[in-house]
Specification:
The protein is 40% helix and 17% strand. By secondary structure, the protein is an alpha/beta fold. Bound molecules: ligand 7TS.
């Protein structure tokens, strides 16, 4: 069990009041709040250790570099990876753009196919669209069932020797659906396709070990897992990282440079052009320490408890339509819904008047909105600092929204 009293004390923002009510923050899928440990680690870095990494020969630069590389080691341990396979990016979006670009340059040509799903965040769709256009490849999408699960029969039907990449989300940021990556990766491997996993909503919320997943690439963001903005991680299999050409180019990613050509640095530095977000990386390392201290099994269980109660409460209200799996075990801590005949923006605005922060919109997943046949949804999402009382406050407030708007 998470000691909620202690945990909540660590998050200064949770003391805030909004419109005269204590803040109930139910939008952690967009970005998580930060514990003082992370805020202080970043401040301490700037106050005591700031210098550019991998460059200076002086003591301070060595200290900054050690802290940066220590953060990489912490992240690697957190996902069961080798630190050389951990690339610091600015977030999930940059990681996925990196893979799509570099993989595209090295391995894609006319007639090749890229398999995505209808439930992708635009970050795991648009880079593949552009790659397909650039290389004359074809983008194919796996259907989502009425229950909000991936249609695995459709996946098997669409997978072929033409499939070069299978790019999919681990956990849907709209439906909450947890996709069975190990078995999908197994199928993809049989046709020789590279598997790219968008882990933006999984790594922050459940134990994830890259060896168990069987994927080739995994991208996630620091800001959704208690860390600072502007830092993310791309994990990739060593052989692939060594084979692929760089994405961004400039300083730090080179070995030797002439006027008309250059050779590349070893991995991971080949993929870290320019001054990296090193203070943010140090903050992410502290966030990983914090999550490890709580235990990712505990974090997952807590999300599950809150999601189960929220789902139960929403499904019991006949004016609510819920999207995605009805079984909380099949989801991450995300629930999308609509109030019958009420625009999600109106619902979110009324909830905000009671200090309850939820998301309303298309959640950067317009093809999924089309598949669900809705313009937008309301979404609540949970994290380790949310409480059952907050879920009850949200459900009670929803009844008031319905009474006011029906
Ligand atoms: N993939 C998924 C599944 C996401 O949920 C998000 C962000 C991204 C990629 C992009 O991450 P970024 O850190 O590079 O922006 N999701 C959301 C969301 O659901 N609401 O706001 C951001």
């Amino acid at each position: 069990m998470i000691d909620l009293k202690t945990v909540r004390e660590d998050f200064p923002i949770l003391k805030k009041t909004v419109n005269g009510h204590p803040l109930v923050y139910l939008d952690s899928a967009a970005t998580s709040q930060k514990p003082r440990q992370v805020i202080e680690a970043v401040a301490r870095f700037y106050q005591e250790s700031n210098a550019n990494v991998h460059r200076g020969l002086y003591q301070l630069a060595a200290e900054a570099t050690d802290l940066y590389e220590e953060a990489r080691e912490k992240v690697a341990r957190f996902i069961g990876a080798d630190p050389k396979e951990v690339i610091f990016t600015r977030g999930t979006t940059e990681g996925l753009n990196l893979v799509a670009y570099s993989l595209g340059e090295a391995r894609m040509g006319p007639g090749d196919e890229i398999l995505v799903t209808e439930m992708e965040h635009h970050a795991n769709l648009i880079p593949w669209q552009l790659l397909a256009q650039r290389k004359g490849a074809r983008l194919v999408a796996i259907r989502v069932t009425d229950e909000g699960q991936l249609d695995l029969a459709d996946l098997e039907a669409k997978l072929s020797s033409r499939t070069k990449v299978v790019a999919l989300t681990h956990v849907s940021n709209v439906l909450g659906t947890i996709n069975p990556i190990p078995s999908i990766a197994e199928l993809a491997r049989r046709v020789g396709a590279v598997v790219v996993v968008d882990a933006a909503q999984s790594v922050p919320h459940m134990p994830v070990n890259v060896a168990d997943l069987g994927a080739d690439f995994l991208a996630f963001s620091g800001h959704k897992m208690l860390g600072p903005t502007g830092i993310g991680v791309l994990w990739g299999r060593r052989e692939l990282l060594e084979e692929l050409p760089p994405f961004l180019t400039g300083g730090e990613m080179i070995r030797e440079v002439w006027i008309d050509r250059a050779t590349w640095n070893e991995i991971p530095y080949k993929f870290e052009a320019g001054t990296p977000p090193f203070a943010q990386a140090v903050g992410l390392g502290t966030a990983v320490d914090y999550l490890t201290g709580i235990g990712m099994e505990e974090v997952r269980q807590h999300d599950l408890d809150l999601t189960a109660r929220a789902l139960e409460g929403l499904l019991a209200r006949d004016y609510v339509e819920v999207y995605g799996p009805k079984d909380p075990e099949a989801r991450g801590g995300v629930v999308s819904f609509n109030l019958r005949g009420i625009h999600p923006h109106d619902a979110a605005t009324l909830l905000d008047r009671e200090g309850i922060a939820i998301r309303a919109g298309h959640h950067c997943a317009q093809p999924l909105m089309r598949a669900l046949d809705v313009p937008a949804t309301c979404r609540v999402s949970f994290y380790l600092y949310n409480t059952q009382e907050e879920v009850e406050r949200f459900l009670a407030a929803l009844d008031r929204v319905w009474e006011a708007m029906r």
